[in-house]
Amino acid sequence: MEALQIIVAIFILALASSLTFASDPSPLQDFCVAINDPKGSGLHIRKNTSNIFGSTVTPVNVAQMPGLHTLGISMVRIDYAPNGGLNPPHTHPRASEILVVLEGTLHVGFITSNPDNRLIFKVLYPGDVFVFPVGLIHFQYNIGNTYAVAFAGLSSENPGVITIANAVFGSNPSINADILAKAFNLDRKMFYIGKTAAVTFAGLSSQNAGVITIANSVFGSNRPINPDYTKYRSPYLEALQIIVAIFILALASSLTFASDPSPLQDFFVAINDPKGSVFVNGKFCKDAKLAKADEFYFSGLHIRKNTSNIFGSTVTPVNVAQMPGLHTLGISMVRIDYAPNGGLNPPHTHPRASEILVVLEGTLHYNIGNTYAVAFAGLSSENPGGITIANAVFGSNPSINADILAKAFNLDRKMVKNLQSEF
Ligand SMILES: *[C@@H]1O[C@H](CO)[C@@H](O)[C@H](O)[C@H]1NC(C)=O
């Protein structure tokens, strides 16, 4: 009985932890600049893609930009050679990735974990956005006859990369060829063709199945897994495994709070319909098996937005409201347009996100150039929130008592009233 109580307690704890576990990380202070030589400009430069894959990734993570430390965000530029430049199948063990195409035409996709190994893919054109959930194997392939360029935000200061082929066939020291022959169902001799070597990487990424068996994901996407895999499991053993996993999860959740969030399954596509769905982190979620590529996709970020407004700037968000597949992934993106000669994205905060911004056109302090300016930014939350200071303070509804603001800002009461009438 006591054992049962403990199990129940653990279970409740685990449930409670799963309710809060998917939040964005807290750095516990404003920031923490990792000490190192600061660098970090030059993402406008096309990189040399003359290499075996025809692609080059230029990262801006904590190694290049120490100020990113503890902020849960980073960025990359990816260049793809014409006619087949490939960012080969890889995973980021610690980050989801939101990617926007600036030039060219990319065929992109990711593969869900076992047992489905479903390939979710899309062809992207300039301005299109796609998200790759944390830990899943994904790739981008240039199907156009021009260079392609993409920028991506990643929900970790240090996302990590595991390039599947390199890890499996290029480990140091090599994995025994018999192991790989069996794992990939290949003739052992094949491993001696060309330069080979390797690793089995059975990425056990969470308690919730979350197993990505590389050979299955890469070669068997969409196909049912070998039935042997699931045979001979005693229900008793399985229950025990689940309990142990829950316990570890409950422990881990308090220990790892400052890490990037874990969605506890491949992804959760947010929906508004409560029927037949689970409720996670404030949203109803679709059955993952019914998820469609379009739920990880958004288009139109290539279009310059109208900036004829009081501030001379327009923010176009791609967060969970626009892209339901972002739910629980701790990442989103915006395009910001600035009018020439003074376009301003006014002082504001994001209560739930750090932001990493790259300028594509123009010169920003506010826009101090005489041309339009354009920036893209990644944000470390699916729903970063925005608090525009002037609007919040002087434009609240109902208004803050003018005496309070007069005192807070050391202003004349009449001035406060004037300001309040502006917002
Ligand atoms: C690109 O890299 C290749 C291989 O390293 C080199 O031969 C080539 O000259 C480089 N091209 C440019 C434009 O730098």
Overview of this protein structure:
This protein is an alpha+beta fold and 423 residues long. The chain has a single domain (33-227, 256-385), classed as Jelly Rolls (Sandwich). 20% of the residues lie in helices and 25% in strands. The chain has helices spanning 2-21, 164-169, 177-183, 214-219, 235-255, 389-394, 402-409, 413-422, and strands at residues 55-60, 74-80, 86-91, 97-103, 106-111, 119-124, 129-132, 137-142, 148-154, 162-163, 202-204, 211-213, 270-271, 278-280, 283-285, 297-298, 313-318, 332-338, 348-349, 355-361, 373-379, 387-388. The strands form 6 sheets. A 6-stranded antiparallel beta sheet has the order 1-2-9-4-7-16, with no helix packed on it. Strands 6-5-8-3-10 form a 5-stranded antiparallel beta sheet. Strands 17-18-21-20 form a 4-stranded antiparallel beta sheet, with no helix packed on it. A hairpin with a 6-residue loop joins strand 11 and strand 12 (211-213). Helix 7 packs across helix 8 (413-422). The protein starts with a helix and ends with a helix. The model is unreliable at 10-24, 194-210 and 223-260 (pLDDT under 50). The structure holds 2-acetamido-2-deoxy-beta-D-glucopyranose (NAG). 2-acetamido-2-deoxy-beta-D-glucopyranose (NAG) is lined by residues 48, 50.
